[in-house]
Design goal:
- The protein is built from 14 helices and 9 strands.
- It is α/β, with parallel strands linked by helices.
- The strands form 2 sheets. It has a 7-stranded mixed beta sheet with strand order 4-3-5-6-7-8-9, with helices on both faces. The protein has a two-stranded antiparallel ribbon with strand order 1-2.
- Helix 3 links the parallel strand 3 and strand 4.
- The longest helix is centred in the C-terminal third of the chain and has 28 residues.
- 31% of the residues are buried.
- The N terminus is likely disordered.
């Protein structure tokens, strides 16, 4: 029967709107009239079988039902669900382009700002720009690539619009939020997934070849699709518990965002010291340090703190105080030196007495700063 159906061209794309347990992901309108059009499947029905409109003489409508099993069920995973992206920021525009390249039918994207429209023009030149509600109505998978602080409000607005339907997958790209942020849509029967790429984005073609880890949170029924999407993007899944989302995101922000601040401060100090090209000075050093710490952890630590070079640390503190350096840079140096001493002491590379002396030098620098502030009052 399966072979006969295939010979008649009756293989049904509707199967691709299902998940592994056969539930429809695209809505529940099982009685929609396909009309007098070339044979197509109703992409919205939710029955456990595949309905196919087969035209007969005089275009009399006749529906033939085939069990979704065996080879047909296997084929159901070869064509992807349709996808729409709300938010054409740096993340949304790149993910939309990557998903389209991976074979997912892209219904469209939304974006209003000049920067978003420019990204769409550059990365998605032939993709429709639609409103969020239009995307929600037309997509099997809806991706909310909006700022963290806007996510809950956007979800609530979509819920109020009536555009999101039961069984529809709704992803968001926030690192901080888990499934709770989509609670207003989950109550309507949507299937939520937290889908955060652990990567910094420029919103340009440079990002298209990157394959990051994705911080995922989903209920068991949605996990297969989440992993399928990550695999389609060439990424690696990392499952994060709902309660750990904020900690997970704090780790990424501390390691990446704060690294940018740290490096920028170091470049400022080198300019003050006379370097014409601070980036050229730092690049090989930072690249080696990053590679080493990712491979060896604390064992990669070098420098005056782990060696217990008290006089060198004191000279650093005096130089920072004497130079025209902003207070934030000095504070960052002192706090990171304390943290470095603590980690070196814990792993046994720095004697307790040396760590204590280093902390005293750093504390004295703080006291001197407070004394200067008090004298200026």
């Amino acid at each position: 029967m399966v072979r006969d159906a295939q010979r008649r061209g009756a293989a049904c794309a509707t199967a691709d709107h299902r998940d592994a347990d056969g539930r429809g992901a695209g809505g529940d309108d099982d009685d929609a009239d396909p009309g007098l059009t070339p044979p197509v499947c109703d992409p919205r029905h939710t029955s456990k079988h595949c309905r196919r409109f087969v035209p007969t003489v005089g275009w009399t409508r006749q529906f033939v039902w085939y069990p979704l099993a065996g080879l047909e069920r296997k084929a159901s995973h070869m064509t992807h669900l349709s996808l729409g992206v709300i938010g054409a920021g740096r993340v949304g525009a790149v993910l939309a382009a990557r998903f389209r390249t991976a074979g997912y039918p892209l219904v469209g994207v939304s974006g209003r700002s000049p920067a978003s429209l420019l990204r769409i023009s550059n990365l998605l030149p032939d993709v429709d720009v639609l409103t969020p509600t239009e995307l929600a109505r037309a997509s099997d998978i809806l991706v909310l690539a909006v700022p963290d602080d806007d996510l809950i409000a956007v979800a609530e607005e979509l819920a109020a619009s009536g555009a999101v339907r039961p069984g529809q997958y709704v992803l968001h790209t926030s690192g901080r939020h888990g499934l709770d942020a989509l609670a207003s849509l989950t109550r309507l029967g949507a299937r939520p997934i937290a889908f955060h790429p652990a990567m910094t984005f420029s919103g340009t073609p440079v990002d298209l070849d990157r394959s990051p880890v994705f911080g995922l949170t989903a209920d068991p029924a949605e996990r297969p699709l989440a992993e399928e999407l990550v695999a389609a993007l060439g990424g690696t899944p990392m499952w994060v518990a709902e309660a750990d989302r904020a900690l997970y995101h704090a780790a990424l922000a501390h390691g990446a965002n704060h690294l940018v601040t740290l490096v920028a401060q170091s470049m400022d100090l080198l300019r003050t010291a006379g370097a014409d090209d601070p980036a050229a000075v730092l690049r090989p050093l930072l690249a080696a340090a990053l590679d080493n710490v990712l491979a060896y952890g604390d064992a990669a630590l070098t420098g005056p703190v782990v060696r217990g070079d008290i006089t060198t640390i004191r000279a650093h503190v005096d130089a920072l105080a004497a130079a025209d350096v902003d207070d934030a840079t000095v504070d960052a140096y002192l706090e990171l030196a304390r943290a470095t001493a603590g980690r070196a002491e814990v792993d046994g590379r720095l004697a307790a007495s040396q760590a204590s002396t280093i902390r005293q030098v750093l504390d004295e620098a703080d006291w001197d700063t407070l004394a200067e502030i008090a004298a200026g009052i």
